Amino acid sequence: MIKPLPPAAIFILGALLIPLARTKRLKQLILLLVPAVAFLDLLYMSHGIYWIYPFLGYELVLGKVDKLSMCFGYIFVIVAFLGMIYAIHVKEDGQHIATFFHIGSSLGVVFAGDLFTLLIFWEIMAVSGVFLIWYQRDKAALDAGFRYILVHLFGGSCLLAGIIIHVVNRGAIEFGPIEYEGLSSQLILIAFIINAAVPPLHAWLTDAYPEGTVTGSVFLTAFVTKSAVYVLARAFPGVELLMWLGAVMAVYGVVFAVLENDIRRLLAYHIVSQVGYMVCGVGIGGEMAIDGATAHAFCHILYKALLFMGAGAVIYTTGKKKLNQLEGIGLYKKMPITLTLYMIGAFSISGVPFFNGFISKSMVVSAAALKHEPVIELMLYLASIGTFLHTGLKLPYYTFFGRPSEKGEIEAKEPPFNMLLAMGLTSFLCILIGCYPKILYDILPYPVDYHPYTPDHVIGAIQLLLLTGAAFWLYIDKLRGEPTITLDTDWFYRKPAKAFLWLCDIPLNNFRLTVQDFLSKAVGFLTELSKNPYTAPTVLVLSTQISITKALNGLRGQPYPDKVVELKKKLKGINGIIYIENRYKNPLALNISLVLIFLLLCTLFV
Amino acid sequence: MKKVLFFISIILACLADLFISHHDHAPFWWHKLPAFDALYGFIGGILLIIVAQALGRYWLQKDADYYD
Hints:
The complex is a heterodimer. Chain A is mainly alpha-helical. Chain A is built from 24 helices and 3 strands. Helices cover 73% and strands 3% of the residues of chain A. Chain B has one domain. Chain B starts with a helix and ends in a 5-residue tail after the last strand. The interface between A and B is large, with 47 and 41 residues.
C-alpha cells in the first residue's frame, strides 16, 4: 500500500531536487514528474483529517481532505503540469524553484486544517510569487514586485492579527466556517479578499501579473486568487457582503478592460471579473452556488492559463505587449495555431456553448436567479457581455488582425513546440469539460442537479454573444488600443507614497539632523564640564563670555577680536586643570548644609 | 457576404427564442421576453463601451509615464 504524502511537500521537496539535476534532460524530467507524482498522490488520498503534528499545545493539520479541497487540489496539480510543459524551455533554475514553492504552498493552503498551517503557506505563497515577477529582470517588474509583496505582507499581517484574536477568543485553531462578526473575522476576511483581488483591494493583481515573466504569469494567474476563493468558500459561505462585492467585482473588471492597452493587463482585469463570479457564488451560499463557484474556479484556471499562454506566446515571439504596437502587423498569418488556441480560451471565458466557461458560469448566474437576486443576476450577465467584448473580440482583433499598419508586417513565427503543446492540451481540457460537464460535476463538493444545455440557456447565450459582437462591430474604431495607462486604486499607494518619501527625506530628515546636532553638541559640552566639576562654573562663565563677545563683535563687524583669543586661552588653561580629589576637600559641614537647604526648598515647593 | 450571414444568424437566434425556448424556468419577468438576451447584449455592450470610455477620457486615462 502506497502511503500518500502532503502534496505541498512533494512540490517543495521537488523544488530542492531541481538544482541537483546535472543535465537538461534530467531537470526537465523532474519538472514534469513532480506534478505527475502529486496527481497520483491526490488519487491515493482519502477523505478525512490526517497528517497531524503537535505544536505549542495545538495541533497542526496538513491534511483536511474533503470534496471541496480535493476539487481545488486536482485543478492546481493539473495546471501545474500544463504550465510546466509551457515553461520547460526556461533555463533559470530559480524560476522553476519559485514556481514549485508557489504551487506547493497553494496546495498547502488548500489542504490546511488549521489556521497556523494556513498562515504559513499563505506567506510562502506571497514570497514565492514575487520571484515569478522579479525574474522578468526589468525596472517595471522590480517595482511592481515590490508593490506586490508589500500588499501581500499587509494581507498576511491582517491574517495573523485576525488569527491571534480568533485563537485567544475561541481557544481553537481549526480552520472551518468562521462566523462573520467581530474584529477577528473581519481581519481574516480582509486578508482573504486581498488575495481574491476584490476591489478596492485588487490593484496588486493588475499591477503585477502583466509584469511577470512569460511563463511565470501563467502560474500566477492560477493559484493566488483561486486559493483565496477556496478559503472564502471554506470560511465564509453565504456572507451577503461577498455576494455584492463579487457582483461589483465582475462588472468592475470588464469596465477597466475597455480602457486597457497592455494585453496581459487586459486579461488580468478579466481575472478580477471572473473571480467576481466565484466570490459572488460564495456569498450567495447554498449547495448550487458553492458548486458553481468551485466549478467556475476549476474552469477559470484552465482557460485563463490558456489565455495567458497565448498572450505570452505573442510577447515571446514579437517582444511587443501593447495593442497599439501589435495592431496591423499581420500576426494572424504568422501565428495561426496560437490564434486558434487563444480563441478556444476566449470562447471558454466568454461562455460559448460547448466550451467550459458555459457550464460553470451559468451555474453561478442561475444560483443568483434562484435566490431571487435580480440585480446580481443582471450584473453578472452584464459582466459576461464585457468578457466576450474584450477577451473574445477586442484583444484577438487588435493583436492578430487590425488595420494594416504603416510599419508593415514583422518577422514572427509560432512559439516553441512545448508552448504549443501546453496550449493544445489546455484547449483540449476546456472543450472536453464543455462537452462532458459530468466529469467536473462529479467532483464538486455537493451533488449537482443542474443541466446547462437546455434550449433556453443555449439560445440565450448565442443571442447575447451575437449581439455583443454587433456592438463591437459598431464601435470597432473606438476600441483601438491607445498608448495610455489607466489609473486604478494603486494610485492611492503609488502617488501619495512619493509625497510620503519626500516628507521623510526633506523635512523629517532635516529635523532629525538638527536634533542630532544639538544633542551631540550638548553632550560634548557636558563632557568638557564634567572633566572637573569644580572648574565648571568658571568654564561656564568663560564660554558664555566668549559667545557674547563673539556675538557683539559680529554685530559691530569685527569678526575675531583679541579678547576672544585671550578668553579662549584662559578657558584652555582652566580645562587643563586635572581633578585631584584631595585638593578640593571642603569642610564637610558646608556640603551637608547645602544638601539640607536643597531638601528644605524641595519640601517647600513640591 | 459576411455581414449578411451575421445578420441572418442574429435573426435565426431571435426566432429560435420564439419557437424552441419554453421559458418555464423563469424566475424573473424578463426571462419571458422574447429575444431579451439579444437586446441586453446589444444595449449592455454599447453602455459598457460608452461609460468606460467616458470614465477613461475625463478621469482615468493618463500618459504612459504618469508614475515615473
